Amino acid sequence: MLMLKLALKNLLGAGMRTWLNVFVTSLSFFAIIFMTGLYKGIIESAKRIRMDTEVAGGAYWHPRYDPKDPLAWDESHGPLPAPIARQVAAGESMPVLVVQGAMYPAGRMSPVVIKGLPPEQRVVDLPSYTLQGYGGTALPVLLGGAMARSTQLREHDTFTLRWRDAHGTYDAREAEVVAIMQVENMLVDKGQIWVPLEHLRRMVDMPAEATFAIVGQGVPLLAETGDWRARDVNYLLKDYIAMAKSKESSARILYFILLTMAGLGIFNSQVLSIFRRRKEIGTLMALGMSRGRVVGLFTVEGGLHSVLAMALGVAYGAPLLILIAVKGMPLPYNPADFGLVIGQRLFPVYGPGLILGTTLLVAALVTVVSYIPARKISTMKPTEALSGRAAQG
Predict the structure, then answer these.
(1) Which helix (DSSP H) or strand (DSSP E) does residue 104 occupy?
(2) Helices 238-276 and 291-327 meet at what angle, rounded to 10?
(3) What is the pLDDT of residues 57-101, one digit of tens each?
(4) Short-list 343, 3, 27, CA closest to 186
(5) What confidence tens digit (pLDDT) does each residue in 259-290 have?
(6) Rounded to whole angstroms, how far apart are CA atoms 59 and 92?
(7) Which are the contacts of 334, defined by CB distance < 8 A and separation ≥ 6?
(8) Which residue among 151, 253, 361, 375 has its CA within the 20 to 30 Å range from the CA of 213?
(9) Cα→Cα distances 195→127, 134, 230, 350, Å
């Protein structure tokens, strides 16, 4: 305790030099927590958005369906196996039929993926109910906001839609935009339109057929799915998870730079402190303090930088971190326009593990950096220290 009081007194006695180091270290402490929390928040937000609007609790794919191979989509449809059909009838999953086509808004041609879904579904968070109760003669269509902007379509606008049916015959009809949904998942928005499932089945002459079926969240995947392939959430999000892991290395480089900045400041401060206080070191040794205790005193002094930095970081950083976590950070652009699956506001996630881990990391780094220059004291002789020669070697 005596050593701790003496170290704190010496540290505070250094004045501005101490507080500059403490401020720089606190900035690193704050920046690491904020950026890690923001990074985790983006990942969690994207995962939640995709699960709510697209992935849900998993899916069953037609044996020939591959979402990355559009050329195979014309052959990727068929009746649902009996176990999946029973789950669909129970409202625990919903079938989706995928057909390629072309739309002609205002005379312009645009390739489009036509997706049919049951308007009454509750499996994913899409406003499919807007397709119900349409009283017109055209095909009711639900568009995403990004798709509406790219095609310059608004609600109640009509356009010509062309497709090829199961027999290879091209057909076309008029379609009307009944609603434009604002979704944060561009994977259910760009380049595609949503229509009632039964309408699409009649259009392409594929009665009771589907391309895949989405399973509701919390509903276990069936063990028996015939020749259809069950895909769990981890499989459906594997590309996204791999991308998130690849970004972790970039984040570690930034953390290394931040910690290096804080460590260099404290290292230089320790070197200067030992040089300027060599007579004090010699006096302590002459009075009987062992070299190990003197080294410990200077190491504790350096380590206390981290304690003061964390206190300062909490004082100015905690209110700001809490405010951002509650209110979120608005983005000045629509993420869907850049192909990003994140919300319009970013909400950082600060877990206890993040705060505790960052605290221990900063404390350990500062202590090690403080110890390295302090080791030089162990080679000093009291007479040389008192004469001011030892620290110059």
Answers:
(1) strand 93-104
(2) 140
(3) 999 999 999 998 988 898 999 999 999 999 999 999 999 999 999
(4) 343
(5) 787 777 778 777 777 777 777 777 877 777 78
(6) 11
(7) 145, 146, 344
(8) 151
(9) 11, 11, 25, 41
